[in-house]
Write a structure and sequence with these properties.
- 2 copies of one chain form a homodimer.
- The first copy, chain A, is α/β, with parallel strands linked by helices.
- Chain A has 2 domains: 8-19 and 104-234, Rossmann fold (3-Layer(aba) Sandwich), CATH 3.40.50; 20-102, Putative phosphatase, domain 2 (DNA polymerase, domain 1, Orthogonal Bundle).
- Chain A has 10 helices and 5 strands.
- Chain A has a 5-stranded parallel β-sheet, sandwiched between helices.
- In chain A, helix 1 crosses helix 2 (41-50) and helix 6 (110-118) runs parallel beside helix 10 (228-234).
- Chain A is globular.
- The first copy, chain A, starts with 7 loop residues before the first strand and ends with a helix.
- Chains A and B meet through helix 7 of A and helix 7 of B.
C-alpha cells in the first residue's frame, strides 16, 4: 500500500477503462452490414483514432476555439469517409457512427475493480471526452462513476495542467490527494508534474496489432498494477 | 405518464432530496455535546438556512464575485456564532460544523426512488451546492447520482437560467429533454420558463415548525407526485 491514500482516483478512459478499438470495430462492422455499406471498418477505426491527438492539438495550440471531442470526432469522420471512398451513408448514419464513441465496452476488470474502489474513494473519468460522451458511455456500460470530469468542464484537453489541477480544485483538495490512473505513461508523467499521485497498469491490446508502447511502467509510479482490480487490491480495498 | 419522457432528471437537493434541517440539528447537537459547547443549535440551523438566499443574492447581483456555497455558508456561520454568543469553537470546530452540509441524510424515499429512476434516465443534482459538497454528500448518504451538476460548473446559482440551460447544453440535449424535480414551486417555475419539464412533490417537514409554503403544486407541473418513489411510478419505472 502506498504511503499516501488519495481522496479521489480519476481514470483516463479511452484505452484505460474501455476497449475503444474492439468496441468500435464490432459496432461499425455490424452497423455497416445492416445498412449494406461496405468499408474496411478496422482501418477506418485505426485512422480515426490516429486523428485524435492531432485534432486536439489544433485546439490546444489555439488554431481552433474550444471544440468538444464529439465535434472533433465528427470532423475527422467526415474527412475519412471521403478518403476511404465509403458511399451510401446518410446524415443519420454519420451521427450514429460518430456516437459509437459513446458505446464503448469496458475491459473485463474495469467495472468490478471500479466498484471496489468506489467503496472508499471518489472515482471519475478524467478524459478528453466531453461530459455527454462519458456519461452516455457510463450508462451504456454500467460504469459506476461518482462524477464525470469531462474536458468541457475545464475547457482544456489533457495534458494541459488545467485538467489535472482542475479536478483537485473542484474537489477542494490538494493535488496530492488525487490519483491519476492510466495505461499511458505520458498521461501519468504530466499528472505527476502537477503533483498528483499516479497508478499505472498496461493495456497491451489497446491498439491491437498496432500497439507500439506502454507495455510497462516507465517511471516509479505510486502504484504499478496489472489492471483495475489489482489497483483496488494494492490500495487495500 | 406524461407525453414527453425526459433524457435526464435533475433534482433540487436541499429539502428535495435531503432533510437538511433534521440532519444538521442532530449533527450539531451531538458535536456540541461532545465538545462541551452549549448553544441553541436548532435556532442556529434555522438562522443559517435563513441566510442562504440573501448570501447567494450578493453573488447573483454582482456585489460579490463567484463564491462557492461552502464559502458562503462559512461566512454566515462566522457571523451567526458571534450573534448567538457561542463560545469555545476552534477553527477546526468551525470547519467541521460548516461541512455539516456535506453530511445530510436523504428522505426515506430518495435513494430507492433515485435508484429506480437511474435505470432509465440520467440523474443528477442541480443544486446551489458546489460539486465537492454534493459529491461528499452523495458518498456520505449513498445517493446514486450519474453526474453532479454543482453550481460551480456554471458559475451561477439558481434561479439564473445559466443553470437550467447549462445542464441541457452539457448533455447536448434540448431543454425539454431535461426534467427539473423539486419540492419548491419557485424553482420549477424558473425551470419551466427555460423550457424544462417539471416534477413536483411536497416536503411538508422541510422547515419543521417554520414551514410556510410549498405544501402543494401551484402550477400544472408535468408530474405532481407524493415523493421520488411516486415520480418513478408515474414515469413507468
Amino acid at each position: 500500500m502506498p504511503t499516501k491514500q488519495p481522496v479521489a482516483i480519476v481514470f483516463d478512459t479511452f484505452g484505460t477503462v474501455v476497449d475503444w478499438r474492439s468496441s468500435l470495430i464490432a459496432d461499425l462492422t455490424a452497423y455497416g452490414s445492416g445498412r449494406g455499406v461496405t468499408a474496411d471498418w478496422p482501418a477506418l477505426v485505426d485512422a480515426w483514432r490516429a486523428a485524435y491527438h492531432p485534432s486536439m492539438d489544433r485546439v490546444r495550440t489555439g488554431e481552433l476555439p474550444w471544440t468538444t471531442l464529439d465535434n472533433l470526432h465528427r470532423a475527422s469522420l467526415d474527412r475519412l469517409v471521403t478518403e476511404f471512398g465509403i458511399k451510401g451513408l446518410s446524415e443519420d448514419d454519420l451521427t450514429h457512427i460518430n456516437l459509437g464513441w459513446h458505446r464503448l465496452h469496458p475491459w473485463p476488470d474495469a467495472v468490478p475493480g471500479l466498484t471496489r474502489l468506489k467503496s472508499r474513494f471518489i472515482i471519475g473519468p478524467l478524459s478528453n471526452g466531453n461530459v455527454s460522451l462519458l456519461l452516455n458511455m457510463a450508462k451504456f456500460s454500467s460504469i459506476p462513476w461518482d462524477m464525470i470530469f469531462g474536458s468541457d468542464l475545464f475547457g482544456h484537453f489533457k495534458p494541459d495542467p488545467e485538467t489535472y489541477l482542475g479536478v483537485a480544485k473542484m474537489l477542494n483538495v490538494r493535488p496530492d490527494q488525487v490519483m491519476m490512473a492510466a495505461a499511458h505513461n505520458g498521461d501519468l508523467a504530466k499528472a505527476r508534474a502537477c503533483g498528483l499521485l499516479t497508478a499505472f497498469f498496461p493495456r497491451p491490446g489497446e491498439y491491437g496489432p498496432n500497439q507500439k508502447r506502454d507495455y510497462a511502467a516507465e517511471q516509479d509510479w505510486d502504484i504499478v498494477a496489472t489492471d483495475i482490480q489489482d489497483v483496488a487490491a494494492k490500495l487495500g480495498v
